[in-house]
Amino acid sequence: MVNNILDTVKVKKPLIHHITNMVTINDCANVTLAVGGLPVMAHAIEEVEEMVSNSQALVLNIGTLTLEQVKAMIKAGKKANSLNIPVIFDPVGAGATKIRTDASKKILDEVQISVIKGNKAEIGILTGSGGKIRGVEAESNDENIESYKNFAKEYHCIVAASGVTDIVSDGNTVYKVDNGHSMLGTISGTGCMLTSIIANFCAVESNHLQATVSAMVAFGLAGELAASRSEVKGPASFKEAFFDEIYNLTDEKLSRGIKVRGEVN
Amino acid sequence: MVNNILDTVKVKKPLIHHITNMVTINDCANVTLAVGGLPVMAHAIEEVEEMVSNSQALVLNIGTLTLEQVKAMIKAGKKANSLNIPVIFDPVGAGATKIRTDASKKILDEVQISVIKGNKAEIGILTGSGGKIRGVEAESNDENIESYKNFAKEYHCIVAASGVTDIVSDGNTVYKVDNGHSMLGTISGTGCMLTSIIANFCAVESNHLQATVSAMVAFGLAGELAASRSEVKGPASFKEAFFDEIYNLTDEKLSRGIKVRGEVN
Amino acid sequence: MVNNILDTVKVKKPLIHHITNMVTINDCANVTLAVGGLPVMAHAIEEVEEMVSNSQALVLNIGTLTLEQVKAMIKAGKKANSLNIPVIFDPVGAGATKIRTDASKKILDEVQISVIKGNKAEIGILTGSGGKIRGVEAESNDENIESYKNFAKEYHCIVAASGVTDIVSDGNTVYKVDNGHSMLGTISGTGCMLTSIIANFCAVESNHLQATVSAMVAFGLAGELAASRSEVKGPASFKEAFFDEIYNLTDEKLSRGIKVRGEVN
């Protein structure tokens, strides 16, 4: 895990350009602020190149995609590539409809992604190992680490598959992250928020494998800490506690709370 | 009221496809999760047929409509009809502008709606009994049960008019639901959230009259329970408590808290 | 400051038509309800004239602008002008991209704005005194009161520049508002919410200079009151407390808590 990652985000305050869905756009802005970065949401095709040029990471999230929006994503992604700005891709609902799967493949083909983060159905469908999705939720936690590794090698990116145990790989090393809590499944947008945190961490740390693992630990640990609070009585009080815990995370808490199994293959 | 409706939703986890407004889209996703269903929000015209085909109910909500979005609603609605998937329609702001009234009529004409749910101004305007709307809020609680019944018969749907007392009718039977709390009027999106809960209940219960009444009881009762909590000090703490109470509702609480007057005519 | 402004809003319940961004649209709706007004969000170009005609103020906020949306803003703004309905403009991200700067100038040229409210970078960039913006956040709190005054005179509007100390001027009188709290910077959308409160106040008070100062006091004071609460442990619990404090504000609290320095030049 990356040392002092949270301190670094808080000091550098990376600007994270999101082209994202309208369901969780407010949560992604707030989680970016809570973790120490600055969010900006901009999707007009006429401005995405200029906006991303001043940013330190780009989030592409297809949760409520339109074909027009995908064009803006690709334009922004190519610009980010030309400036060595990391691109974090969240293929929300890939496999649920043809245009989501096609858009995901098109983005992966035309933009050099730094990290692809999805649930195990989305990642399974895109990596070719299969998976079942209902709407935007994985039906089960099946994973296929070999196909993740092959995909990571082919696309020169980090593959991050979230689930009860998260899997992260760069094609060689594989990490399993056990941080997390079942209450995270009771609120909308946790996957999107995790993607935003990954973007904040990759914006300040060039080792994207380590940055992604660290982000997943931070996200899961905040969920654990929130769930343990006495005032949490359901999903909404949990969500409030979760944001507060993200804000109050420290690198010291991270190193105490980390639950990661590394397997170098 | 439907027995074991909440248990059934939690077991079946219906997928509820929403084509909805951008103001309350996050609330509708979260209330669907809280009540036990799975939300998916998708509005691109290229994917709505495919998405609704895998869903158990479709919500059409015109709160921030565009003409393009209405086309997607009708396309999705017709597909839902062909697959016997219930369509729940919320004509937000009907009467406030011509395009909202026209869109509502077009949807009613082209799609077989299972339930139309609006405030008493929206429902009054569409059923022809009249009503005054300011923006998206009813100016008064005037109701016209005969016109609701005629409309329900003509369109073969359930008419649900929300207000201090909610009125629900299939054209023959009329129910009056007295559950609810004035604090619900202090937050945005309660009407939209109620529509989502109706969709969750109709997704698992083919008696849509009973499902709609049950949803209105559940919604209103959660409001009552939330308002009675000592930590509620205003609309935001009320909203948090409301979501938590929706999550913690049980069929036993529903049958204890129900305030429904039935009138079979 | 305006006497009884909160009471007046609560009694008159002004309808505030927003054409705004998708990040904070829900917050703007809720803050309008909390302060006593009625929100309506409508952006379809076919309905904005009709919607604004029944409103008491119009908010134009370019936080996630598209060129199409800017057209709707100008159409609505011109209609508002013809009916003497105040237009409150929030040039979110002006200076960050060319289309945001251009759209801001176009709106200022084609619509008679009552109040322009931005952070000190946005206002500095548009008034010509300069400023540095990162995404949608000002990089520093530099201010140039002379350029604000000149701009207010040229455009016959109130200029409101928010920061640690807010500056408000009509071109002659200058007010400095010291209410506020650093926790407001930890959540997304506070600038947008402040704009909505200004709109609510201008909707019921024709002295827009006084209405704007009063709104900034109300906004900042609610932040101070929220931050002092023992249950606030981070940005999310602060946000909840903030909304509750807005709802619970009274004119008496305002006159006790006001921190304004007036300088008539």
Automatic annotation (TrEMBL), chains A, B, C:
The keyword ATP-binding is annotated on this UniProt entry: yes
Pathway: Cofactor biosynthesis; thiamine diphosphate biosynthesis; 4-methyl-5-(2-phosphoethyl)-thiazole from 5-(2-hydroxyethyl)-4-methylthiazole: step 1/1
Entry keywords, A to Z: ATP-binding, Kinase, Magnesium, Metal-binding, Nucleotide-binding, Thiamine biosynthesis, Transferase
GO MF annotation: an example: hydroxyethylthiazole kinase activity
GO BP, sorted A to Z: thiamine biosynthetic process; thiamine diphosphate biosynthetic process
Binding site for ATP: 117, 162
Binding residues annotated for substrate, in chain numbering: 41, 189
Top-level lineage group: Bacteria
InterPro entries with a match to the protein in the record: Hyethyz_kinase (IPR000417), Ribokinase-like (IPR029056)
Catalytic activity field: 5-(2-hydroxyethyl)-4-methylthiazole + ATP = 4-methyl-5-(2-phosphooxyethyl)-thiazole + ADP + H(+)
Cofactor: Mg(2+)
Enzyme Commission number, as recorded: 2.7.1.50
Similarity comment: Belongs to the Thz kinase family.
HAMAP family documented for this protein: Thz_kinase
Role according to the record: Catalyzes the phosphorylation of the hydroxyl group of 4-methyl-5-beta-hydroxyethylthiazole (THZ).
Name this protein carries in UniProt: Hydroxyethylthiazole kinase
Gene: thiM
